[in-house]
User: What shape does this take?
Amino acid sequence: MKSTERTMSAISAYYYMNHRAPSIREVANLSGLSKSWAHECVTRLWSAKRIKYKPSERRSIEINP
Assistant: This one.
């Protein structure tokens, strides 16, 4: 599975389990990626418009419908 798909799965799983947005560190832990690579994948998902993300805000990741 690609890193971006693992990241998307981790975000979805976190939302399902906790009913709130994950931090980058939590995405990294769930996906098994380093924190810097998880951040890169979140940025790629944001660029592809698969998620909403505000880099300057904590826990700002939202899944686009």
The helical segments are 3-18, 24-31, 35-47. Residues 3-63 form a domain with the Arc Repressor Mutant, subunit A fold (CATH 1.10.10.10).
